[in-house]
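Amino acids appear as letters; backbone shape is given numerically. Here is one record.
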Amino acid sequence: MKDRSLWIVDFGSQYTQLITRKTRELGYSSDLITVEEALNRFSNRKSPQALILSGGPESVFLDKNDYSLFFKNPHLPVLGICYGMQLMAKYFGGVVEKGIQGEYGRAKISFCNEALDHFPKSLNVWMSHSDHVTKVPGEFQILMKSENNLVAMIQHQKRPLLAFQFHPEVQHSEYGKELLHYFLVQVSKLKNDWDSTTMLQEALELVERTCQENSGEVLCAFSGGVDSLVAATLADRVLKEKLHCFFVDHGLLRPQDAHHLEELKKNTSLNITILNVRELFLSKLKGVCDPEEKRKIIGRTFIEVFEEKVKEYQKNHNIYFKFLLQGTLYPDVIESLSPHKQGGKSSTIKSHHNVGGLPERMNLNLLEPLRYLFKDEVRNLGLLLNLKESWVYRHPFPGPGLGIRQLGEVTPEGLRILGESDQILFEEMNNFSLYRFIWQAFTVLLPVYTVGVKGDGRVYERVICLRLVNSSDGMTAEWPEMPQAFLAKTSSRITNEVKGITRVVYDITNKPPGTIEWE
C-alpha cells in the first residue's frame, strides 16, 4: 500500500475503523496503524501530513507510554478523539480527571461562543467516556461543552491541533463528517487524494507488481460473493490463464447460490472449479452446537479439503501455485487482529475463516488487493470493472454459510428449512423491489419449538427469525422498518410452504449491541 497523507492511530476504540471510512468518504486516503507502528514510524523520522489519535478503552492514568513524538512537530496537524483528546490535553499541561459518572450514548453539546461556519449552535453526538478534561491547557480554547458542562471540543490558538471528547465518526453524531472535514480542510489543509478510480488503479498495480516480481500460478479461494468476485476479476485482468478459482460446495449454501455460481461460470472469463464435499462437512459438524467451534470446524475442514484438492489439481495439470488470492476486506482484517501480535489495543471479536491458516499450510504467499477497502468501496470497484449490478449488490454471505444460521447442531433437516425459508425471503424482497434497499437479509433457524395450529390440528414446530439490516461497511448496522405487506407475505409463505415451521419473528436489534449474524 502506498504511503498515505493521513495516519490514524488506533488506541483500541471499537469505532476506529469508522474514522478511516469517513475520511475516505470525504476524499482523503488514510492509513490505520497500531500505536506501536506509529511510534516506530516517528522514531524513524517518518511523518504524515496529518495525524488522528483515536479513542480507546484505557485511561491516561494507567497508560505509561511516551507519546511525545505525536506532538513535537509544531506544524503537524493532530486531531484527538475521546482518549486522543485526553492524551493531547495531558501532554500540553491540562488536567484530566476520573469521572464519577461518565457520558455514554447520545449527548447534546453546544458551542460556547459563536458556532463554526455552517454549524448549528447545538449538536447531538455520540459519547463514550468516563475520564474527562477538567482544565484546558494554555493556548487552547474551549469550543464546545456538553449539557453536563464537560469539555467537548478544544482547539489550539496557534498550532493545528483540534480535539473532540465525542465520536464524530459514528453515524449517530450530527455533523460528524462535517467536523472531520473541518479538521482535514480548515486545520490540516489537505488535498483530496482518494476516489474509486484511485482504488482501482492501486488494486491493479498491487496485483501487477506482486506477480511480476514472483513467477507462478495464482490460486483463488472463490466464494462467488462480491469480495472474491471483484478480487478475481481484478486479478483476471492481469493474470488471465494463470488464475485458477476453486469453489468449495460445503453443503451450507442457499438455493440462490447455485444459480449465481452457474451464471458466473457462463458469463465471465473466470476459470472456476467446483469441489463438492457436502457430506464431509456435515459429518464433521455432527453433534457440534457451540457457534465458535462450528466456525473453527468449517474453517479447518475448508483448509483440509482445499489443500488436498489443489495438490491433486497441480499434479494433474503440471502447474505450481505461488500465491493465494483472497477477497479479504478491511473489517475482516481488523476483527481478526490479535492485539498481542500486532501491537494494537483492540480485541478479537470472532474468527474469520478467510484470514490465516491456508497460506501457511500450503506454503503460499497471500495476494489480497482489497484488504484495505470496505464493502461499499469494493462494490464501486465492481461497477468500474463492468460487473453486473445484481452481482455487485448481492448481499453478503458468510464463509460458514448456513452453518451459523442454524442455531445449535447443524442437521440436513435444519439446512432444508433454512434453504427454503431463505429462498422465500429472497423472492419476496425482489417481488416487493426491496432487495437493493437492504444491505443484508437472511433467515435464522432458532432452537425453539412453539405450539401452532395447522389444518384445525395442534402442531409443535420450529421458529424462523427474519434478520434484515442496513449498513455501509458492516462495522455498524441498523434494522429497517419493513412494509407490513412484505412482512405479512413473507411470514405467510414460510409458515405455509416450509414444512416444520409454525412461527416467524423479526429481529429488531442494531449492531452494536448485537452482531449481524446470530452466531
Summary: Confidence is low (pLDDT under 50) at residues 338-344, 346-355. The first strand starts at residue 6 and ends at 10.
